[in-house]
Design brief:
The structure holds two protein chains of two kinds. By secondary structure, chain A is an all-alpha fold. Chain A is built from eleven helices and no strands. Classes of the chains: A mainly alpha, B alpha+beta. Chain B: This is Trans-2,3-enoyl-CoA reductase.
Chain lengths: 288, 317
């Protein structure tokens, strides 16, 4: 299932933050199913979302889902079950490590293969959007997944000295709870049996998880800065044949700065979505 | 008023304007001429709501429908004696000409700041020094020529079908053009700039591509201008003229974009600068989207549209 609303998934931290892309198209939250979110997602992009009420979204969602081929439904169900399972395994491994060792040092190392596998596997969600079996826009999904891939591969994996920082555990916990909630939400939606508590979790956990995830990610990047500066990693200096330069240190600084405009936008958007979905408020969206 | 000997009631249509979102009655116009155009109605609406000048009004028959055109005549619309129009605020507007001039003047000026190595860009020992590479001077001439051409075309050649665009576009567009101009110019005019690998040969070839494409792009702009008389908004299928550069119309709907991409590819080869290549790629992506849209509207509007034509790249895209 596509990453309809990384935002809804909350605690996605950077990923959620960055998924907003340039304003004013923050991520919509799906109400009960991919179809809804899809409809909202695509219209949000044009800025023409008129704050459709949940009822009409529901209907549209069911309609859209019926149009999903059998193969696509089977694949997406399998995919979401697999991802739920994967992140569950990750969660259990993290808990066990802490119970056995009593410390977070070495935790990343012990779960890194699983983390990398399942987080990288999520690249498929871009393909889901590309082929249209998930209604989210490719751009939105791309930004979301990319920010996660960035965090996993370009920060935590590549900058070994920061792997034992507490902030890493912080975002790992946020991501894990988020993803388990999100993928199980999609799974149940696809199976047409969505327990209320999953919907509740999806639209409430983010309140805590999102800021926690963002904090974890920012603190991790911040901790990495001295090492990046010292080693000059991932950087290109002049002179060179292609007349370009890149300074990873400044890139990281800019990335951190970008959280400032993006985080509040996404967070408040998610809060509005939550009110709409859980409390049936009809909100007339401000015209862009 | 007597007409044909029979008393006729003073015929005038009534127009009520409602807010498209809240359905609130915003304005009621009495005795509107049936021959009145939407443009005239917009002017009347502005009188009661001066903050909504005509350019930012979108009037439609259906709250979720398409905007009516300024030239549409009230009488010809499917309305009763009281026309109900729905209003949507398009937001602050800015004229296309203003946007174009601003977004093109920026790169012209910014590039020169780097070319002349104005203080605080490169190290102080390089202030106001000049590059020893011919290609750097050539690149400055080409870049400046390109934007001067664009400015002149905006002022004297282009005929815009829309008067205005949303105000926020100017910030978006200027960030794009000015940002990339600064990024490119920084490297090309850098004291540590490395000239192209294949030397003068590469530069000559690139220059030829650039010049040909600039001439081509200009030819297309002139051909498109001649297609549409001054002040009109008519649309016609463009065809090749006597000018060989316009023969590209045989193969593509938007040869102006084709030539534009070509110019930037030429500039990228000339400077052998990766940021230029990236700028070309981004521009190409955007122009392809525009070309596909234009191509689609041509196909929709003209039954006899030449089937051989592709949007932007002959035979391919």
């Amino acid at each position: 299932m596509g990453r309809l609303t990384e935002a809804a998934a909350a605690g996605g931290g950077a990923s959620a933050a960055r998924s907003a892309g340039p304003p004013p198209a923050p991520l919509p939250l799906s109400s009960t199913s991919p179809g809804c979110a899809a409809a909202m997602a695509s219209s949000e992009e044009d800025g023409t979302n008129g704050g459709a009420s949940e009822a009409s979204e529901e209907r549209e969602a069911v309609g859209k889902r019926r149009r999903l081929g059998l193969l696509a439904t089977i694949w997406l169900t399998f995919y979401n079950i697999a991802m739920t399972a994967g992140w569950l395994v990750l969660a259990i491994a993290m808990v066990r490590f802490y119970m056995e060792k009593g410390t977070h040092k070495g935790l990343y190392k012990s779960i890194q293969k699983t983390l990398k596998f399942f987080q990288t596997f999520a690249l498929l969600e871009i393909v889901h959007c590309l082929i249209g079996i998930v209604p989210t826009s490719v751009l939105v999904a791309g930004v979301q997944v990319s920010s996660r891939i960035f965090m996993v591969w370009l920060v935590t994996h590549s900058i070994k000295p920061i792997q034992n920082e507490e902030s890493v555990v912080l975002f790992l916990v946020a991501w894990t709870v988020t993803e388990i909630t999100r993928y199980s939400f999609y799974t149940f939606s696809l199976l047409d049996h969505l327990p209320y508590f999953i919907k509740w979790a999806r639209y409430n956990f983010f309140i805590i998880l999102y800021p926690v995830g963002v904090a974890g990610e920012l603190l991790t990047i911040y901790a990495a800065l001295p090492y990046v500066k010292k080693t000059g990693m991932f950087s290109i200096r002049l002179p060179n044949k292609y007349n370009v330069s890149f300074d990873y240190y400044y890139f990281l600084l800019i990335t951190m700065a970008s959280y400032i405009p993006l985080f509040p936008q996404l967070y408040f958007h998610m809060l509005r979505q939550r009110r709409k979905v859980l409390h049936g408020e009809v909100i007339v969206e401000k015209d862009d | 008023r007597l007409r044909g000997g029979v008393w006729n009631q003073e015929k005038g249509d009534k127009v009520e304007i409602l807010d498209a979102k809240t359905r609130e009655k915003l304005c009621f116009l009495d005795k509107v001429e049936p021959q009145a155009t939407i443009a005239e109605i917009k002017n009347l609406f502005t009188k009661t709501h001066p903050q909504w000048y005509p350019a930012r009004q979108s009037l439609r028959l259906d709250p979720k429908g398409k905007s009516l055109k300024d030239e549409d005549v009230l009488q010809k619309l499917p309305v009763g004696t009281t026309a109900t129009l729905y209003f949507r605020d398009l937001g602050a507007q800015i004229s296309w000409v203003t946007v174009f001039l601003t977004e093109y003047a920026g790169p012209l000026f910014i590039y020169l700041l780097f070319y002349f190595r104005v203080p605080f860009i490169y190290g102080h020992k390089y202030d106001f020094t000049s590059s020893r590479h011919t290609v750097v001077h050539l690149a400055c001439i080409c870049h400046s020529f390109h934007y001067i051409k664009r400015l002149l075309e905006t002022l004297f050649v282009h005929r815009f079908s829309h008067g205005t665009m949303p105000l926020r576009n100017i910030f978006k567009n200027c960030t794009y053009y000015w940002g990339f101009a600064a990024w490119m110019a920084y490297y090309i005019n850098h004291p540590l700039y490395t000239p192209p690998t294949y030397g003068a040969q590469q530069v000559k070839l690139a220059l030829a591509i650039f010049v040909i494409c600039q001439l081509g792009n200009f030819s297309i702009h002139m051909a498109l201008r001649d297609l549409r008389p001054a002040g009109s908004k008519t649309r016609k299928i463009p065809y090749p003229t006597k000018n060989p550069f316009t023969w590209l119309f045989l193969l593509v709907s938007c040869p102006n974009y084709t030539y534009e991409v070509g110019s930037w590819i030429g500039f990228a080869i000339m400077t052998q600068c990766l940021p230029v290549a990236l700028f070309s790629l981004v521009g190409f992506t955007q122009m392809t989207i525009w070309a596909k849209g234009k191509h689609r509207s041509y196909l929709k509007e003209f039954r006899d549209y030449p089937p051989l034509r592709m949007p932007i790249i002959p035979f391919l895209l």
